Amino acid sequence: MDAGLPYISDCYTLNLQGETAHFCPYTDFHIQSVSGDKVMDWGASPYQSAHSMLVNGADRALLGGWGPEYDMATLLRIGRDGVRRIGGQCRLVLPDGVEAQFLRYTCRGGDLHAFTRGTWYRSTLDELQAVALGA
């Protein structure tokens, strides 16, 4: 029984926030969320290679990608018209400005945790938006 739920063959992004899971499944790459037995399909993602997602209200940031886009951040907003990109894409860098290669990300709500070689970095969607949107 499929209960009208979307088909998911792989989950490219996953963010758990309280009792709600936010995700972007392969192959349709729609931004979706599920709480209990209620599934929301917010619409197609304008960026399909992200490995992590930050969530804060209607705002999202998709992080990572394939090849040279490994450190890409794409800011999104969910509205009545679906999912839309806000601002341009930007690259994630370490606090000293060095490339953010080989980081492992964990996202919970709007909090980004990045780990590499025994170092733990933390940032937020709000901080990322402030830098990317020039606020």
List the main descriptive attributes of the protein structure presented here:
135 residues, 5-stranded antiparallel β-sheet, single chain, 4-stranded antiparallel β-sheet, mainly beta
Structure overview:
It is a single chain. This protein has one domain (10-132). The chain has 135 residues and is mainly beta. 22% of the residues are buried. It has one helix at residues 125-132; strands spanning 10-17, 20-26, 30-35, 38-44, 52-56, 59-63, 72-79, 82-85, 90-91, 104-108, 111-116, 119-124. The strands form three sheets. Strands 5, 6, 7, 8 and 9 form a five-stranded antiparallel β-sheet that branches. A four-stranded antiparallel β-sheet has the order 1-2-3-4, with no helix packed on it. The longest helix is centred in the C-terminal third of the chain and has 8 residues, at 125-132. A hairpin with a 2-residue loop joins β10 and β11 (111-116).
